[in-house]
Specification:
alpha+beta, five-stranded mixed β-sheet, 164 residues, 4 helices
């Protein structure tokens, strides 16, 4: 089965300043999480190293591949070359800069390592919740996609193990 085509749209910032968007370009990998090809192409276009901060939006893809994929990209300095910046609507920039209040719930991996044996908002977790000390029992979590959105779209698989 052929994979859908992924076309990348990068909205670029540096040091808190929005530079604009680049013209969309295709990449060889359809997978949204595969950003090495994206940063490689952006490094060439901009002449400075680029870092994908997050996936912002997908139009026309089927999770987790294909479509027009918009990423927020940060560069360490304003590029010396003009890549032909495209206008980005201020409302879109505001949405990129301020993710939805439930974004951490929708994509739990964005808040850092999963807490051990607990669920809920990441803000209420201390580092000791995330990383048990030596000799403590560790109940690892494996978060897998779950179509039941009442569980936040993810299900947890647990298996007790002893840590030496």
């Amino acid at each position: 089965m052929a994979h859908p085509v992924r076309v990348v749209r990068a909205v670029v910032s540096t040091g808190g300043t929005w530079l604009g968007a680049l013209a969309p370009f295709p990449v060889d990998s359809p997978w949204w999480a595969d950003v090495e090809l994206v940063t490689g192409r952006l490094d060439e276009l901009l002449g400075v190293p680029a870092t994908v901060l997050r996936l912002v939006d997908v139009v026309g893809g089927v999770a987790p591949a294909g479509g027009l994929v918009t990423y927020h990209v940060e560069v360490p300095a304003r590029p010396a070359v003009d890549p032909g910046w495209q206008y980005v609507d201020p409302d879109e920039l505001a949405a990129i800069a301020s993710p939805k209040p439930d974004a951490a719930r929708q994509a739990g991996w964005t808040g850092g390592p999963p807490a051990v044996g607990r669920r809920g908002a990441r803000e209420d977790r201390s580092p000791s919740d995330r990383f048990p000390g030596p000799g403590e029992d560790l109940e690892p979590l494996l978060r897998v996609p779950d179509p039941d959105v009442s569980r936040g779209g993810m299900a947890e698989v647990r298996q007790p193990v002893a840590v030496a």
